[in-house]
Design brief:
Blueprint: H1 2-10, E1 15-27, E2 30-41, E3 44-57, E4 60-69
Antiparallel strand pairs: 1-2, 2-3, 3-4
C-alpha cells in the first residue's frame, strides 16, 4: 500500500475524489468503510468505489485493507 500511495503522491497528474455516499460500520476494533463517487484525473471524470478495512491497535486506527475500482459501465 505504501508504494502505491507514494506513486500517486509523486504523480504530476491532478487527482481528486468526490465522495457522494459514505458508510462506516464499526465492530469492536474493526471498521469497514465503503464510499462511492467520482475520481477525476487530469480533468477526466469516472465513477469510483472504494472499500477499506481498518483495525484499532494501541488506540490508533490503522488501514488494513483497501480495494478501489471503477465500476463497469454499460456499453452504448
Amino acid at each position: 500500500m505504501r508504494g502505491h500511495v507514494e506513486a500517486i503522491a509523486a504523480s504530476r497528474s491532478k487527482i481528486a475524489f468526490d465522495w457522494r455516499q459514505r458508510r462506516v460500520r464499526v465492530a469492536g476494533d474493526v471498521a469497514w468503510v465503503n464510499a462511492s463517487g467520482t475520481l477525476t484525473v487530469d480533468g477526466r471524470v469516472a465513477p469510483y468505489q472504494v472499500t477499506g478495512v481498518f483495525v484499532r491497535r494501541g488506540g490508533r486506527w490503522l488501514w488494513h485493507t483497501h480495494s478501489g475500482a471503477e465500476p463497469n459501465q454499460p456499453q452504448s
